[in-house]
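Usage

Read records sequentially. Each one opens with the input sequence:
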Amino acid sequence: MASMVVTFVENGGSRFDDGEAVLQATVARARRARPRLEIESSAFVAHLARHVGRDADVAATLAAVHVEDLYLACACALGSEAAIATFDTELLSPAIEYARRVHRRVDGLIDEAAQNLRMRLLVREPEREPAILTYTGRSPLGAWLRVTAIREARYLLRRGARRAAVDGAAADPARQVGPATRVGSPELALLKREGLGLMGDALERALQALDERERALLRLYFIEGMSLAALGRIYHVHESTMARRLQALRSRLLDDVKQDLSIGTTSVHDLRAIVESELDVHLSEVLRRRG
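and closes with the structure output:
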């Protein structure tokens, strides 16, 4: 049987002082917290390597992360029925109820959000791993799920509003967005035909142009729901500096999207009028798909 350190390194982690002892202690801590779940040590160590293996101080990170939640997430991704039952009862259901309280007037939408969320989090597809694997343990899994459930509900709300706006603009020229958009213009036809999917596709390509560290920062903020203060502690900078970094990344993404769309500046502003306020939602969706 390979040592835990070997497994950790083989799955992208870095060697660190007292690695074997630290990993053994981490696995033991996870199992004490979740005694009803049984997964191979090697599978969990590989899971840890993917999430914390490149941190500057792996041992400190392992001591700080919510290892019991990472263990549960790993077991869910592996298809453990006991883990999925625990996840549904202890974590997902409360997160959905939280979203229901926030959006009290749209119960049907919350039901759709719950179904979509559970499918994306737990179901493995040929081209996509379960999204539960994107959870990194930096925040409690319950808190991560509450943020994710709220974002799913808001995404569905805004998707409905966007479709209504696009349909309304197509039917009524007086409701077209932006003074420079004219009936019959190629730009307007493009917006009608592609809608906000155009922005999503362009964002996907823009994200690909970022380096892994930049994408990791966006994932921590938009998917994990980490605060600027928490991010500042991880990256050893003040939260105001972190806010500027995130704003700079968002500006870069918008600039790349404008270039990718290859349409006139005025028309891009028309598109922005529809989507700029919802850039965070689009980023969250694209980042979730990327895993």
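Summary fields computed downstream for this record:
- Residues 161-195, 263-270 have pLDDT under 50 and may be disordered.
- Residues 141-171 form the longest helix (31 residues).
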